[in-house]
């Protein structure tokens, strides 16, 4: 499986999950079969809320799933409509942590209630990782 994880940097398995999908500096693509990572710069990291186009950014990469700490409703709906499963990362997770959780089957899908209402706005449930510091 190829999993896309929005990360704070491009340090591979040691990279920490970024708090919000669309504004992550980069995406770490994890191939769970071989443990190999590929780093993709997020050219749309500084978008206005609601203008993120996640499938366009990730098209052609063979992604099967997304693991994120925070994501807006529109992006979540768009990814799901594109056939992707979206999982929820926990606070402080690294790519290596996510790889282990996927292998163990302990990673939960992201529920609609956990989607963000906007950058810095939205339900408290949505902000486990989605805190702008």
Number of strands: 5
Coarse morphology: globular
Poorly predicted runs: 119-133
**What structural category do the secondary elements indicate?**
alpha/beta
Helix percentage range: 10-25%
CATH topology: Nucleotidyltransferase, domain 5
Q: Please tell me the total number of domains.
A: 1
Mean pLDDT: 81
Write down the secondary-structure element order. Answer: EEEHEHEH
Strand arrangement, major sheet? 3-2-1-4-5
The name of the CATH superfamily reads Dinitrogenase iron-molybdenum cofactor biosynthesis domain
N-to-C span: 32 Å
Strand % is 15-25%
- What is the name of the CATH class? Alpha Beta
User: Radius of gyration, Cα only, in angstroms?
Assistant: 13 Å
Second-tier CATH architecture: 2-Layer Sandwich
Structural description of this entry:
The protein has 133 residues and is α/β, with parallel strands linked by helices. It has one domain (2-117): 2-Layer Sandwich (Nucleotidyltransferase, domain 5). Helix content is 18%, strand content 19%. The protein has 3 helices and 5 strands; from the N terminus they run βββαβαβα. Strands 3-2-1-4-5 form a 5-stranded mixed sheet, with helices on both faces. It is globular and about 30 Å long. The N and C termini lie far apart (32 Å). Residues 119-133 have low confidence and may be disordered.
